[in-house]
Amino acid sequence: MDKLELEKDLAQQIKESLEVPLYWRLPRMEARNFINIYQRDENKKLALLELAKLDFNLLQSVYLQELTELAEWWKGLKMKDKLPFARDRMLECYFWAMGTVPDPKFSKCRRNLTKYGSIATLLDDVYDTYGSMDELHKYTTAVKRWDLEAIVELPEYMNVCYKAMYNHVNEMVEDALNTHGLDILPYIKDQWMCYVQSLHVGAEWYYGGYMPTTLEEYFKNSWISIGIPPSLAYVFLAMLEDSNSLNQCELQLFEQWSSSDLFYLPSLITRLLDDLTTSNVEMERGETTNSIQCYMIQEGVSEEEARDHIKDLICDSMKKFNKLVAHSSLPTGFAETALAMVRCVQRMYQFGDWFGVQSKANKISSLSKIYKYRYDDIMRDGWSALQVKWDLY
């Protein structure tokens, strides 16, 4: 490696380190970035480099297979045709799941997490931008009943959402029961009910023209409506399946999740990141309820001052969460996976509203920076565009 190449590689590493501190980074993503640099190093260990490339290739094969299956599932639901107003975010949800639980053994968890995120995003759009208050009340009631017969009272577009949610959950519950003897329905059903109820509260605020006057009031609902608690429950339950049982500590976590910082802090951080990135777009749509506006009302400050305060809250919350992870009495994988989920969310929002605004140019840039894939290649060549192979020799 000549001096110029060395300086360019070092400069790039320094630039990325300044953009994102170490504790925000995703190990798998960093390994992918470092392979390019390491293979140009004159002092590299060839065996180590070959193992790194082999690991990358094997993972790519696993991810490609999962995406192929998920694409067929999503295509079969025909959501683009039945709910044209809603965001189509299956691909983004998979990348989020992949960043949260990247290990091959969590293949089933990644698929379930992607399905949850895709359906939850549809419901978020139904409650935020499309459904009338009367329709939303019927849907919320139907979810609380948790009975497929409840769809007779719903409009057709809501039937589609309800069936997708209900069938997905039942499929996952049946698999856990048959494979591991675990009945996870009470925990998963509770998460979906609380998520939908929080969306309902947000809709009531919007249609009633109500704005929470304090951050505390806003956070009581918005930390749940951001959708992170159910995703954490999905991941934690997947980690418990191999044990075929829940011990007292783990059982308490699921029964008292609403008062657990392991659920609250990742959700709060995600909510704050989302508000910082999406607030201007949402205000253009008439949605004014977010942490920035609430703090402006609470303290009588400017938008710039409110944004600075929200950034400080994110940093403080991340410090608390790091401390919680370091001293958690729960199995190591629980806390570390929750941390990985937060890191993944942060990286997704680092380059703008990558999840909320479906702009091709935005996605090409973001996917290239975050995952080193080109979004236009994926759209043109299909999922095979993700199968990037390293030459081992």
UniProtKB/TrEMBL annotation:
SUPFAM superfamilies: Terpenoid cyclases/Protein prenyltransferases (SSF48239), Terpenoid synthases (SSF48576). Keywords: Metal-binding. Residues 76-320 form the Terpene synthase metal-binding domain. The keyword Cell membrane does not apply. GO terms for molecular function: magnesium ion binding; terpene synthase activity. One of its GO terms (biological process) is terpenoid biosynthetic process. This is Terpene synthase metal-binding domain-containing protein. It comes from Gossypium barbadense (Sea Island cotton).
